[in-house]
Amino acid sequence: MSGTDDIQVFLTYADIALASSLIVIVLIVSWRLRLKLTKTLLTAAIRTVVQLSFIGLILAWIFAREQWYEVLLILTIMTLIAGSAAKNRVKRSYNGLFIDTLISVSVSAVLVTAIAIMVILKVEPWYTPQFVIPILGLILGNSLTAISLTSNQLINTFHEQQGRIEMMLSLSAKPFEAIHEQIRAAIINGMTPTLNSMLVVGIVSLPGMMTGQILAGADPTQAVRYQIVTMFLICVSSTLGCTISALLTYRRFFNQNKQFVIPF
């Protein structure tokens, strides 16, 4: 029997070592152009191998056991790390920023993941690790990027346009009216990577999830359907996360008397 249905390629450690050797090309470019990225590249490459190998062992163990409390623990850790990563990407911090980013990430990602698992995919039981862990991870990764972009731009704008905002407040503008344009611009900035991906997906690029499924031997039509679903999930989660983040940040910059303040 011929065809692609029987083709299955198993990667060995030698194959991984060969792929990792390609990093030498990047190192040469960095050295020749004096990009000063050698240390960062090596650190990133090593962490990629170590972190993915470690999570592979953890997931294999969890997949074999399928205990709801173990799956819930992994999901909680993933969410906490995502909130911390979003906070660390914001250049100008303030007291409470981690709480704001964690709420933005967790509410948007958990809500959308729950809808995906229980309503769209109808997975039984809901804590089946094969589905819930990769879906939440995919949504968290994209949401934290969108949230950090939104928070970063909004905070910078508030610092840079403090005088303009205070002037509008002095002219009887309500707090939200004074900063509406800044919030709108920040949310658009956070959503831009997601929207750009949706505009070219399938034409310019094949997403990682879809590519991985096809390489693993999955039916291309099913891989496409899964990718369409995940793209919409990412879009919704990113939009919710950016909006929640912008509103939480906005509240930090106004006191109970509706006066504009710079939090520290």
Walkthrough of the structure:
The mean pLDDT is 88. The protein has 264 residues and is an all-alpha fold. The protein has helices at residues 13-20, 23-32, 38-65, 68-88, 97-120, 129-160, 162-170, 175-200, 208-215, 220-252. The protein is built from 10 helices and no strands. Helix 4 (68-88) crosses helix 5 (97-120), helix 4 packs parallel to helix 6 (129-160) and helix 6 (129-160) crosses helix 8 (175-200). It is globular, with a radius of gyration of 22 Å.
Which class do the helix and strand fractions yield? mainly alpha
Which parts are unreliable, with pLDDT below 50 for 5 consecutive residues or more? Answer: none
Share of residues in strands: under 5%
Binned, the helix content reads over 70%
Oligomeric description of these chains: single chain
Q: Counting H and I runs of at least 4 residues, what is the number of helices?
A: 10
Q: Give the overall pLDDT as a whole number.
A: 88
Order of helices and strands: HHHHHHHHHH
Radius of gyration over C-alpha positions, nearest whole angstrom: 22 Å
Shape: globular
Cα separation of the termini: 68 Å
Main sheet properties: none
Instruction: Find the count of extended strands (DSSP E, 2+ residues).
Output: 0
Key phrases:
10 helices; single chain; mainly alpha; 264 residues; 75% helix
Write the layout of secondary structure elements.
Layout: H1 13-20, H2 23-32, H3 38-65, H4 68-88, H5 97-120, H6 129-160, H7 162-170, H8 175-200, H9 208-215, H10 220-252
Helix pairs in contact: 2-3, 4-5, 4-6, 5-6, 5-10, 6-8, 6-10, 7-8, 8-10, 9-10
